[in-house]
């Protein structure tokens, strides 16, 4: 790898290994994609949920009567799709009320109202990061393999394109290879990565990175963190410490925490989210691997039970498949068959 020695060379695109260029290009392409491409991908990514979840819901609404069996079957279908008890109960109660008030008798007449209710649970379509001045520090947390690195790469590229100077901190000092992996992305994206050796104190890495971000006048520092330590208790303790140092050094108002969760882990994703939220107070969620599950209802469970905004969703393996979460488009993609 001849181009790793000097930064000037790494900056010269022609000198970059082809593989790296391809990766960076894939991210770029997505950013430049037209709306249709984005929606098509979303739909493809939600195909399993459409088949395994929405098709069943739709068959419930094809029943001939709104009776106890109708509600029971709907409830069962929602629970099976990881919508969660709370969101399911609320949805059913809402429907019952509307049926009574508006004297609806045909399940089909209720289907659109149901979709609207789902849409309402998902809340508003907010910016990924709150607008800021000076330095913003985004701490990215989540268990190993959830998609933190993919999220970091995507966001780095996003904010670079907006003209921000982005710096990365290799705060996963536990997993072998985690530092190298982030450095590799740093090269692809032409971003400096602040790191120490494997096994170093993650809070010290964060501290260094903030000093570097300040002296280099960076706009955004993204801090990668460990997804696993010897015990879960240790992990939460470490994350709290990192979070505290960031707040101290950069100012509380500068910090945001993004939790990355894997949708295919179902209710476990919800439990993880609760744990991380308790430890470091999460501001937003990236929900990855929706393409790998038929239980897309987890989106509703997370929103309803934690009341945390979902900022990004992953609908495919590539960084390009990580999309801004748009509740309108999400519901449309979920309920549109062709
Ligand atoms: N199918 C699918 N795969 C995804 C998605 N998001 C991430 N992946 C894949 O999941 C794997 C793990 O993603 P990473 O971004 O490396 O996850 P991480 O949290 O950084 O993992 P560690 O660094 O090992 O803790 C990679 O192979 C990604 O390509 C998604 O939305 N859909
Ligand atoms: Mg990683």
Précis, in short:
By secondary structure, the chain is of the alpha/beta class. The chain is built from 14 helices and 8 strands. The protein has helices at 7-11, 18-32, 35-45, 47-60, 68-80, 85-102, 107-121, 148-161, 178-189, 202-215, 232-250, 267-280, 298-306, 327-335, and strands spanning 136-141, 166-171, 193-194, 220-225, 255-262, 284-288, 310-314, 322-324.
What does this structure look like?
This protein has 338 residues and is α/β, with parallel strands linked by helices. It is 54% helix and 12% strand. An eight-stranded mixed beta sheet has the order 3-2-4-1-5-6-7-8, sandwiched between helices. The longest helix has 19 residues. It is elongated. The relative contact order is 0.16. The site of guanosine-5'-triphosphate (GTP) has 21 residues, from helix 8.
Uncertain stretches of 5 or more adjacent residues: 1-16
Bound molecules: guanosine-5'-triphosphate, magnesium ion
Report the major sheet. Answer: 8 strands, mixed
User: Can you write the helix and strand succession as a string?
Assistant: HHHHHHHEHEHEHEHEHEHEEH
Strand content: 5-15%
What count of helical segments does DSSP give? 14
User: Which value, in Å, is the CA radius of gyration?
Assistant: 22 Å
Main β-sheet, spatial strand arrangement: 3-2-4-1-5-6-7-8
Structural classification:
alpha/beta
Shape: elongated
Distance between the termini: 46 Å
Task: State the helical fraction.
Answer: 40-55%
- Number of E-state strands: 8
Mean pLDDT: 89
